[in-house]
Amino acid sequence: MERDGEIIEGEYVILYLDRRRKYLVQVKRNRMFHTHRGYVDLGEVVGRRYGEAVKSHLGFKFYIFKPTIRNYVMKVERKTQIIYPKDIALIITYTGIGPGSRVIEAGTGSGALTTALAYYVRPNGKVYSYDIKEEYLKKAEKNIRRAGLEDYVELKLKDVTEGFEEENVDAVVLDLATPWLVVKHAYNALADWGSIASYSPTVEQVIKTVEALRKTRFKDIECIECLIRNIKVKEGETRPETFMVGHTGYITFARKTLEGMNK
Fold first, then answer.
1. What is the pLDDT of residues 5-25, one digit of tens each?
2. Which of 4, 15, 36, 129 has the smallest number of Cβ neighbours within 10 A?
3. What is the pTM of this model?
4. Residues 6 or more apart from 148 whose CB is under 8 A from it?
């Protein structure tokens, strides 16, 4: 929400102190945002422009940035572990999800992946996200609404081992403990050109899922692990950072085929 480039009350912004400390906050008058570097009067952000800075009552500068989809994903209120942007990027790229895509997701969890999928299927696509826990769906709905993407998501309370309600979707994305139990339902829900992606933290899950994919006429099966290493850049000291987010999960991709089907 912007008017002539100025930030208005009610929108979300990033308050950036440094690379490790950046905060997603909603701009409201008469509200203070408290940090270890003092509190920021959020009313002072109203009418500012992105890139400007506001000071805490202790005199520390916080730069005002417009939130990206990465910010919304990483700042979700969590009920569950989330899928990181590095893995989300692969899921979206390998499946071809984009504007207008119809996508099934299971399970919803805290809604981090749901939020990213909704962002990329705009303006006329849809994400149908399933979970068996109502409390997760309620938390996810709040996170999705905060990102302003609720119009592109339909949340569903259902056990997906019983099947999906949609047909001819472009992609099915699974983040489940037992994805191999859902592979057949995914096949039936996919359009002829559809793709499946399954995110799993353990090798045992991957093996069972790949076996199920092979038995269900999927081809072009590929499993990937994505690792990212940040670099500390400073003259005379440039080197990989000491700590990194290592293993998060394995992502298995496959394409639907019509092999063996009567035409």
1. 799 999 999 999 998 899 999
2. 4
3. 0.93
4. none
